[in-house]
């Protein structure tokens, strides 16, 4: 399986994340991608390729033009306003307030975000664009006949809505890939999100559509981020009714339980009969992950890859979460190796 990787991911190297009322060193950091890349190369699972450049048109197929323009200028506008630290949203349009785009950069940060943990600094825009190019290059490989490809995206993407950033995500890479398949004539696409956290952005983007089936296995949003989406009664609306599936699990969930949900999701995908599959691959389901509460082991990820391969679909993996840096490379490559050996 070919891996797509861009060194431009390291342009996103923020110093601060708001957590527990303190500014801490971010969990989402450059060493995550570098550790995965080292494992990919060490295991020799396939070529590592640089991404092509696709421009912003495929991104705007998923994200609103005004949101894209905001991300492009955010850091410059923040600096121009004389702000001393990294750009962190601090005000939002709450219930009973008007939803309009303010002129002030603080107001615009709030308008285009849904959480305060994700700061923006120099290089965030370049890294987000490169991450989308990584995803689109993997999609092009699969569209041109590759059985599967791994987009080693950083920053991740599945929390990004059409016009909102948060959860370390700016452009929704999995959604961009799915839309690219649709724009190239693929009639149906499924997105399976196996990250510990609900893929709220992906769900929101496709919630009223029947051509893209969205499925997510994740921790109970009553207890964990993103809190306000991801419940099992969210099944789609309008044309999308019945085309969104959330499978929610409590603290301590092991593979024996989680894999039952995986089987349910795979059966739903098979019934949908898509022309391509996008896997939003997070390994923060790992038992030692510092910000999650599932109990999957490294060996379990081999089985995950094997089960996905049995779907028999052209498949793009987009890298999402996973914050135990010591184990992230092993766990991600186990999924890819499990997939490859089952094909």
Q: How would you characterize this protein structure?
A:
With 343 residues, the protein is an alpha/beta fold. It has ten helices and ten strands. The strands form two sheets. Strands 4-1-5-10-9-6-7-8 form an eight-stranded parallel beta sheet, with helices on both faces. Strands 2-3 form a two-stranded antiparallel ribbon. Strand 2 and strand 3 form a beta hairpin. Helix 3 (65-80) runs antiparallel to helix 4 (105-111). The radius of gyration is 19 Å and the shape is globular. The relative contact order is 0.15. The mean pLDDT is 98.
Rg calc: 19 Å
The tally of strands reads 10
Q: Tell me the span between the first and last alpha carbons.
A: 11 Å
**Roughly what fraction of the amino acids lie in strands?**
5-15%
- Count helical runs: 10
Low-confidence stretches: none
The class by helix and strand makeup works out as alpha/beta
Give the H and E element order. EEEHEHHHHEHEHEEHEHEH
**How would you describe the shape?**
globular
| Strand neighbour order, sheet with most strands | 4-1-5-10-9-6-7-8
Mean pLDDT: 98
The main β sheet shows up as: 8 strands, parallel
Helix content: 25-40%
């Amino acid at each position: 399986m070919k891996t797509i990787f861009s060194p431009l991911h390291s342009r996103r190297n923020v110093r601060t994340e708001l957590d527990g009322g303190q500014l801490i060193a971010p969990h989402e950091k450059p060493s995550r991608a570098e550790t995965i890349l080292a494992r990919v190369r060490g295991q020799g699972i396939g070529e590592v390729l640089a991404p092509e450049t696709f421009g912003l048109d495929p991104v705007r197929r998923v994200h609103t033009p005004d949101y894209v323009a905001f991300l492009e200028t955010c850091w410059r506008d923040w600096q121009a306003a004389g702000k001393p630290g990294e750009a962190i949203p601090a005000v939002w349009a709450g219930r009973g307030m008007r939803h309009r785009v303010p002129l002030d950069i603080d107001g615009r940060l709030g308008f285009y975000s849904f959480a305060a943990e994700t700061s923006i600094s120099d290089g965030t825009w370049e890294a987000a664009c490169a991450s989308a190019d990584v995803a689109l290059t993997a999609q092009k490989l699969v569209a041109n006949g590759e059985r599967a490809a791994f987009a080693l995206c950083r920053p991740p993407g599945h929390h990004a809505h059409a016009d909102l950033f948060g959860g370390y995500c700016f452009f929704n890479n999995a959604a961009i890939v799915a839309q690219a398949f649709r724009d190239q004539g693929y009639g149906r696409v499924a997105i399976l999100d196996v990250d510990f956290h609900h893929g709220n952005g992906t769900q929101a983007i496709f919630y009223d559509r029947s051509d893209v089936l969205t499925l997510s296995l994740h921790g109970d949003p009553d207890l964990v981020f993103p809190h306000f989406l991801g419940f099992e009664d969210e099944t789609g609306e309008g044309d999308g009714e019945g085309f969104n599936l959330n499978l929610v699990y409590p603290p301590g969930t092991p593979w024996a339980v989680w894999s039952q949900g995986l089987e349910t999701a795979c059966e739903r995908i098979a019934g949908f009969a898509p022309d391509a599959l996008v896997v939003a691959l997070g390994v923060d389901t790992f038992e030692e992950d510092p910000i999650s509460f599932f109990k999957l082991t490294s060996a379990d990820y081999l089985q995950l890859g094997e089960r996905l391969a049995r779907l028999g679909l052209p498949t793009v993996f987009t890298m999402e979460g996973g914050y135990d840096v010591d184990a992230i490379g092993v766990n991600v490559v186990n999924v890819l190796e499990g997939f490859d050996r089952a094909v």
